[in-house]
Amino acid sequence: MANTRTLPELAKEAGVSESSARRYVKNFSEFIPGEHKGRLKVYPSEAVTVLKRIKQLYDSGYNTESVYDALAEEFDRVIEASPAEGGGDDGHPPQENSNELQAQEVVKQLVSQIQERRFDDDIINMILNRLDALEKKMKDLEEEKRSWWSRFIKKK
User: Fold this and answer.
1) What pLDDT digit, counting tens, does each position of 132-143 carry?
2) CA 32 to CA 80: how far, in whole Å?
3) Which structural domain range is residue 64 located in?
4) pTM
């Protein structure tokens, strides 16, 4: 992220306390994306605008649900996708062609299409077909995994 800020910097620029900024980031993380740089988490400078708006809404008497609804109308949501944890049964990360990564890619595509608000019938059918295929793959993998464990236990 270019032009990033730490949480204390955001809080200072937005005119809110650090504890309030932390609460806002936690409660409204879809509107305030962060990125880890080592142990430090940084936010885009545009997050200052979101924090100021949250403060303004709370000061006007809005409750958390109303603030969320107002933000949803005014700002884009950001859904962070991270690689699946763990990976295979052996503790190694999943291979690049694994189903977890394929599922993540499908989810990323779905999210981008939802954010672009393209909901025509062709896309909905494509989404349903992909989800069915992923569900079938996952069931097949679960069956293979059970079979492997069954064979392993019988040998002992």
Assistant:
1) 787 788 777 776
2) 10
3) 4-74
4) 0.51
